[in-house]
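Suppose a colleague, Dr. K., hands you the sequence of a protein chain of 63 amino acids and asks what its three-dimensional shape might be. Before reaching for any lab equipment, you can write down a predicted structure in C-alpha cell form. Begin with the sequence itself:
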Amino acid sequence: MRKIIYALFILLLFVVGIAGIFYGLYIFWKPLAYIVGGFIFIGMAGILNQAYDNTSNGKGGEN
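The predicted structure, expressed as C-alpha cells, is then:
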C-alpha cells in the first residue's frame, strides 16, 4: 500500500511540475515575443544598413 501511495505522490509531483513549466512558458510568451521581435527588427536594420552602405559607395572597393 505504501508503494502505491508513494508512486501516486511522485506522479502528482511530476504532473504539477510539468504544468508549472508550461504555465511559466505561457506567462513568458508575450515578453518573449517582444524580445524576439526586437532582435528581428535590429537584425533587419543591420541588414538594410549594410545594403545601403554597399550601394551608396560608388568610389570602388571590392565590387
